[in-house]
Design a protein that fits this description.
Arc Repressor Mutant, subunit A; two-stranded antiparallel ribbon; 53% helix; elongated; WH_DNA-bd_sf
C-alpha cells in the first residue's frame, strides 16, 4: 500500500517558503519535494483557500506564506489537506459475519482510534514556528546557509 506523503511534502515546502522573503514558484517548490509543479499548485490552492498561503501571478510571482508560523500547527495543515487517513492498516472486513473476526475488529478498532487520537494530539502540539526553529538549528550545524536550490543534503 502506497503511503500518503502530502503532509510531509507540504510542511517541507512551507518551511522553504518561510526562509524566503519573496514568492517561490511552483516549479522551484516541486523540485524541492521531487514532484510535478501541477501537484504543488493543486495542494497549495487548498492551503490558499484556508488562508495559509497566497499566490501572485505573473513575472516575479509565486507562492508566499500568509500565516503566522507560531499559530499554525501540523494538525492545521493536516486538516487543510482534507484529513487523509493516518494509518495504512485496517480491518480485513468491515462487517464480518464471523464472531472471531468481530472480536478481532473490536480490538483493532480501539487500537486504531487510540493511535489516531494520540497522533492528532501530537500534530496539534507542533507549530510551524517550532519546525522552523529546528530547521535553523540544522542550518547552523551544516554551515549556516540555506538556499532552496541546493539545501538538500544526505
Amino acid at each position: 500500500m502506497r503511503r500518503d506523503s502530502r503532509l510531509s511534502g507540504v510542511l517541507h515546502v512551507l518551511l522553504h517558503m518561510a526562509e524566503h522573503s519573496g514568492p517561490v514558484t511552483s516549479e522551484v517548490l516541486a523540485k524541492a519535494i521531487d514532484t510535478n509543479p501541477v501537484v504543488v499548485r493543486r495542494i497549495m490552492a487548498g492551503l490558499r483557500d484556508q488562508g495559509y498561503v497566497r499566490s501572485e501571478k505573473g513575472h516575479g510571482g509565486g507562492w508566499t506564506l500568509a500565516c503566522d508560523l507560531s499559530k499554525v500547527t501540523m494538525r492545521d495543515i493536516y486538516t487543510a489537506l482534507g484529513s487523509p487517513a493516518l494509518l495504512a492498516m485496517s480491518n480485513r472486513a468491515e462487517t464480518p459475519g464471523c464472531l472471531v473476526e468481530q472480536a478481532v475488529n473490536a480490538a483493532l478498532n480501539q487500537a486504531f482510534e487510540d493511535a489516531e487520537a494520540l497522533l492528532l494530539a501530537r500534530l496539534g502540539q507542533v507549530t510551524l514556528a517550532m519546525l522552523s526553529a529546528d530547521l535553523h538549528e540544522r542550518i547552523i550545524a551544516h554551515g549556516g546557509s540555506h538556499h532552496l536550490e541546493n539545501v538538500h543534503v544526505s
